[in-house]
């Protein structure tokens, strides 16, 4: 593999700060640039290096929303199981038909109506 040399202009203070960080991490500018170039070559993508506060807040909000979605997973099977319509661990889409669920909902509405109106069944 043949090698080429690249030259870039960068703010002197930024270079000094980053050189110190890289040194603490056991890296040097050349190794980091090679890793970046390898990543781009392998993935065909340029990594998102936007580190703005707004970007970080957006990512945090996204993670919070995904966590809420994860926490909600399984709520339908649990609810149907609690209602006695399916057994614990059953797949609700295989255990109960849409017609059965519809009939159950209508039955519940009718029972609620009877209780609210005080009428006997």
Keyword list:
121 residues, mainly alpha, 6 helices, 0% strand, elongated
Write a brief caption for the model.
The chain has 121 residues and is mainly α. The chain is built from six helices and no strands.
- Compute the separation of the termini in Å: 87 Å
Could you tell me the number of beta strands?
Answer: 0
Helix content: 55-70%
Poorly predicted ranges (pLDDT <50, ≥5 residues)?
none
Biggest beta sheet summary: none
Number of helices: 6
Structural class, please? mainly alpha
Helix and strand sequence: HHHHHH
Radius of gyration: 30 Å
Give the overall shape, derived from the CA principal axes: elongated
Mean pLDDT: 86
Proportion of beta-strand residues: under 5%
Please, could you describe this protein's structure?
The protein has 121 residues and is an all-alpha fold. The protein contains six helices and no strands.
SSE topology:
Elements lengths: L11 H13 L4 H15 L9 H20 L2 H8 L9 H4 L2 H20 L4
């Amino acid at each position: 593999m043949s090698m080429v040399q690249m030259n870039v202009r960068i703010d002197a203070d930024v270079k000094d700060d980053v050189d110190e960080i890289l040194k603490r991490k056991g890296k040097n500018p050349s190794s980091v640039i090679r890793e970046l170039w390898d990543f781009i070559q392998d993935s065909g993508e340029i990594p998102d290096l936007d580190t703005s506060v707004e970007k970080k807040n957006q990512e945090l909000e996204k993670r919070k929303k995904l966590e809420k979605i994860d926490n909600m997973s399984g709520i339908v099977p649990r609810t149907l199981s609690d209602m006695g319509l399916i057994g614990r661990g059953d797949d609700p889409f295989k255990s109960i038909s849409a017609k059965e669920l519809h009939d159950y909902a209508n039955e519940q509405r009718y029972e609620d109506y009877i209780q609210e109106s005080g009428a006997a069944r």
